[in-house]
Design brief:
By secondary structure, this protein is mainly beta. Helix content is 6%, strand content 38%. The strands form four sheets. Strands 3, 6, 10, 11 and 12 form a five-stranded mixed beta sheet that branches. Strands 2-4-9 form a three-stranded antiparallel beta sheet, with no helix packed on it. It has a two-stranded antiparallel sheet with strand order 1-7.
């Protein structure tokens, strides 16, 4: 899968590649679900600093599931979206650096290769995680002193055959249906944590 990235300035928004279409595959039963937790490396940082965030996707159900391998991607299709709210008003003219990404499917690539490029299996009782850096250019709240609530929303259509590219080439549905387990489908809220953004060092309001 080839990705081409482009960066553009936008006001208070991110531009994301559209989700692939298709009929989703549903896990059977209502007890199969995920738990998504976010944990900042530090809950206190200076204005303009990058926020380091650990993200864990835990299978708290009773069957093995496929989940998307890329948990959080600010410039392309992303199962997880993040937000900072309940803080002080942003200064007029504050800009959020937006970005967009495109990708190209290779129809000659094998079913197995394309499947594992996007999906990973998650057994029951196990978790899958990553550490990401939240850039102040994407979140101007991190440049604004105050106390902010950080939370996220994780969602997936659960269609193993779908593509996230603009010119999609779906995978073979018959092969996907023959797999021993299905992809998780649904929407989960993460836990919420509070982030304190201090004034920059040397500023009149700096406390530390």
């Amino acid at each position: 899968m080839k990705r081409v990235y482009a960066f553009v300035p936008v006001v208070f928004g991110l531009v994301l590649a559209p989700h692939g279409a298709g009929k989703p595959q549903l896990p059977q039963g209502g007890s199969r679900r995920l738990e998504v937790r976010i944990s900042p490396k530090s809950r206190v940082l200076r204005a303009g600093q990058t926020l380091e965030l650990r993200i864990e996707i835990r299978n708290v159900g009773d069957v093995e599931l496929f989940v998307e391998k890329d948990i959080y991607q600010p410039c392309s299709h992303s199962p997880l979206s993040l937000s900072l709210d309940l803080g002080p008003p942003l200064k007029p003219g504050s800009e959020r650096l937006g970005c967009a990404a495109d990708c190209i499917d290779n129809p000659k690539e094998s079913f197995a290769n394309r499947l594992v490029e996007r999906w990973i299996s998650l057994p029951e009782g196990h978790f899958y995680g990553t550490v990401v850096s939240i850039d102040p250019d994407l979140f101007p709240e991190l440049k604004t002193p105050g106390r902010w609530r950080l939370r996220g929303k994780y969602s997936s259509g659960g269609d193993l055959t779908s593509s996230i590219c603009l010119s999609p080439v779906p995978l073979d549905r018959q092969l996907a249906d023959a797999l021993p387990y299905k992809a998780w489908r649904g929407q989960e809220e993460t836990n919420a944590v509070w982030i304190e953004v201090l004034p920059p060092r040397g500023s009149p309001k700096s406390k530390r």
